């Protein structure tokens, strides 16, 4: 029998160098039951991190470097996000490229947030690309044809969010917020869509828009998230050397968090014109905020706004 007032539980934790908060609400489950479901939703974050982190010497993605030239069987926790990252790399002709791990290390993004230890890869050529990685869907293997430090920062967290969401489907509503990667399922306790604020890229604590969403993901990539201490002006998103101005941030609404996560980063790399074309091709909506705070959106973005 439904409860008069919905039960609500929130749990927060740190995983993948991010504060993650999961909220669950239900009129049909007691708080203890909601809490157990949230605990089940927490596990994928640690499991994906253990497989996909380039900062951990014992991760699956790092162990590939010990088997260059060999077809290595990997778990689905690595195979699926890597496969998706390579698909986006192909669509963008390599402008989005998960083979940038060594470049990220040189920018100073090489410290494991848990241990505080720095990791540095040696004997990795500067010209490696995603084309040096081959997958075999039938056998679920990965082959590095040359030493490649794979960086899955643009897909792994979204993948973990999607896996977590599968554990919460029986609740009336839930929100998973993983530091800018958000999935909102079902409805709020008042029966309305969840309201999600879009961060202002230049004013801390401020928002530029509010969305009303249900059963979809909202992910934002921005140049403000993590700055390089080695190269002034550089961030954790490796931008190509091209003309034009790159966005300050890109927010994408998609059915799945891994898709929104990857496409927001890809659109940052491509810029507003090519980026909007990519989002339209993939059937998702997006908001581009430029450094001068001018904005560009896809055609159906306004459907989700809640002003």
UniProtKB/TrEMBL annotation:
Protein name: FAD:protein FMN transferase
UniProt entry keywords in alphabetical sequence: FAD, Flavoprotein, Lipoprotein, Magnesium, Metal-binding, Transferase
Protein EC: 2.7.1.180
Cofactor binding: number and manner: Magnesium. Can also use manganese.
Originating species: Alicyclobacillus sacchari
This protein's record includes keyword Metal-binding: yes
Keyword Metal-binding recorded: yes
Domain of life per record: Bacteria
